[in-house]
Description:
Distance between the termini: 48 Å
Low-confidence stretches: none
Number of domains: 2
Helix content: 40-55%
Shape: globular
CATH class of the largest domain: Alpha Beta
Amino acid sequence: MLHSLKxxxxxxxxxxxxxxxxxxxxxxSAVSHHIxxxxxxxxxxxxxxxxxxxxxxxxxxxxxxxxxxxLRDYERLRKSLAQDSAEIAGPIQIATSxxxxxxxxxxxxxxxxxEYPKIHINITYAKMPDIYEHILSDxxxxxxxxxxxxHPQIKLQIFKKNKLAIITPPTYPRYASTLSGLSRLxxxxxxxxxxxxxxxxVIDQLLNEMGIRPNIVxxxxxxxxxKQAVESGLGIAIVPEIAVEKEVELKRIxxxxxxxxxxxxxxxxxxxxxxxxxxxxxxxxxxxxxxxSS
Length: 294
């Protein structure tokens, strides 16, 4: 019954049988089966099947509201029982972006799991604002986010600052990191992050403050695609410095580090405000903070 309630809530949140099936790793017909089973057990129709979109009946609205509370109480119980255990063990659900997951998270997750071998870290990759949605819906215990955005229901703990760097194809001449040099550089075709990404707002502001108007010809929604485009000679880009260390070392791209502190950006641990964290999640958060306290 609890599993069926979760599937029902996922269906309502996403308004899609396909998406509800995907995140629960089942078929669409299995989703329909769970909904029918709930309706039979409760003796009420939950969905108005006369409409093409997913519409709740009055009974469905009541069941949805109560189900959210039940699932949240169950998750709190599970975490409380895990916390009562003398041994720190169990899973940690982490939501993060691909870039942070590849280049930042392993620095902490590897040593942490060596110290706590009975803790298992499960990672979900997503983009903002979906990362916050995973926390608010209790699908993730915590998130690691770059360029964190304030949210009234999200607690942010900044643990580190990284630098942005400009990258160019290896065939490009070298440009100085002076204002005049950068102004000439950004006359070249430029690859930018999508406007929906937090990094875009930061980069727009940085260049605007320097009086630079970039020649934007391509827009991508993730750093890995931007790097590949630069390697292919399509233009220049601004990306997290940590994300291009390997490519720079292999001379696939060139890197220009801008010395100004304004070209730094924060990384933060994000959790739901007033969430009851499991002992495993608390241990991981403290591990990350302690590694960056010195």
